[in-house]
Design goal:
With about 100 residues, the protein is mostly helical. The protein contains 7 helices and no strands. It has helices spanning about 1-15, 20, 25-30, 35-50, 50-65, 70-80, 85-95.
Length: about 100
Amino acid sequence: DGVLLATCMRVCRAGHLWQLGLSLLPRARAARADVAVYNAAISMCADAGQWQLALKLLGRAHDETRVDTTSCNAAITACDRGQAWQQALHIFHLSAGLRDVI
């Protein structure tokens, strides 16, 4: 269930256990997880300084479900923390079609 997986990922994020949280992603795909699962995973990557992985997950979310403002903002945060400003700007420009991007 997507809600349970997203909750587990948030708990892993709070406990700085990002690798454990990401190990749940294969189950998320099998359960046809929604955007909340990917948002939690991208946020974990941002906290862990894993901006490249965050971008990879943003792409998967786009391919497998959808992305929303939370997805894009989490990926931008990951890029910011990794000093990958060009990638952050790229995501920002791509997200212009989302109505409530901040």
